[in-house]
Write a structure and sequence with these properties.
56% helix, mainly alpha
Length: 113
């Protein structure tokens, strides 16, 4: 099962709290993120050579690109994308789908009688 994506703000907080000397479990409880996710992000930061304070001018996209390297064995082989790129479906499509499902359900319930 893949780990949940967390906001860059939380990743920055994880790195800051870890640099302040908190244990991984304390950081996990403070940020309300699973322990394994905290450990994974700290390990990724170590591999990328990042420590707190982060270099100036390192925005969220650059931080994500350094932490989530394509082809890394511990994560997905896709580049970092901070937001989903899939467009929302058009309202007319969803209502048409709903009508066809209701029609199918109604037909199935009538044929079962």
């Amino acid at each position: 099962m893949s780990r949940p994506h967390i906001a860059m703000r939380k990743i920055r907080t994880v790195l800051r709290l870890r640099a302040e000397g908190l244990s991984l479990r304390q950081v996990s409880a403070s940020v309300q993120v699973p322990f394994t996710t905290v450990a994974d992000h700290v390990r990724r930061a170590d591999r990328a050579g990042l420590s707190w304070p982060l270099p100036e001018g390192l925005d969220d996209d650059a931080l994500g690109a350094r932490l989530f390297v394509a082809g890394d064995a511990s994560g997905p082989a896709t580049p970092f994308r901070p937001w989903p790129t899939k467009p929302a479906p058009a309202v007319s499509e969803t209502s048409a789908d709903a009508r066809s499902r209701r029609a199918c359900v109604g037909w199935a319930s009538q044929s079962a009688r």
